[in-house]
Amino acid sequence: MRQAGRYLPEYREVRGQGDILDTCRHPDLVTEITLQPLRRMAVDVAILFSDIMVPLAAVGVPVRIEPGVGPVVDEPIRTAADVATLRPLEPDADVPHVLEAIRQLRKELDVPLLGFAGAPFTLASYLVEGSPSRTHERTKGLMLGEPRVWDALMDALVAIVLPHLRAQVEAGAQALQVFDSWVGALAPDVYERSVFPYMRRLFDGLGDVGVPTIHFGVGTGELLAPMRRAGGDVIGVDWRTPLDAAWDRVGSDTAVQGNLDPAVLSAPWDVVRAETDRVLARAASRDGHIFNLGHGVPPGTDPETLSRLVDLVHERTERREAPR
User: To the nearest whole percent, how much of the chain has pLDDT over 70?
Assistant: First the structure.
């Protein structure tokens, strides 16, 4: 779930202490880091090494990733004048390094490559708060108190995120994931009014790219139905919502991704195995289940545990041809 193995010692060796956004500007490094997990485990897809803040930095937002903190925006966006400083993304000019890395990876990979971007609300939460937030108070205050400014901000972010995703497909990405990591902080009616229209526009704008799309959020049990209506071929489900309950909310014809609690990975192996079996039992061998974590791999996770987990899921879900 977390791209490229921030939990791997070889990743930390390659990256060193530099800013992750700077690493993302070097296609050779991106290619190497993306490939690292595949050398250790038989995962079914490679996830492009990048960061959701890459397109914002590319259009001039003064953002940095502080270790142990996350994205920090030096000049938060709080007014209509601030929103006016955002411009649409021009992928070939602004993120050529991302596109070159994708082209390089397609030459190296024998599994599909997943590209991704942050969703407008999640990006807005960083832009408005100025750093990660548990409450998103300023973001909600802007959304509810100044709806015209909020709408302008979401319009601007769709004009950044949509071309970023489309360009990844044009460069060779074979699936896309949209991370709305913090949208679970919203009540359903607020989501419907202030986020849904922009997510619908975003996914409508991806309707002709010809690759599967995944719509992911955390703490979104009460938002799963409107998220499905907003778009996405696959809906991500975190560990708080059982998979069978999630299917009831999004419809049996929709694929779901999830949903092992990442914290389980720090437990003894017999616990990991038992909890994995619980997730698979909820899935009940139905078509349209992507086994995954409910959120990112904790950085301190033992890579051997992940390798064993991948092998276990493959063993448990192997579909043998029926005898003739």
Answer: 96
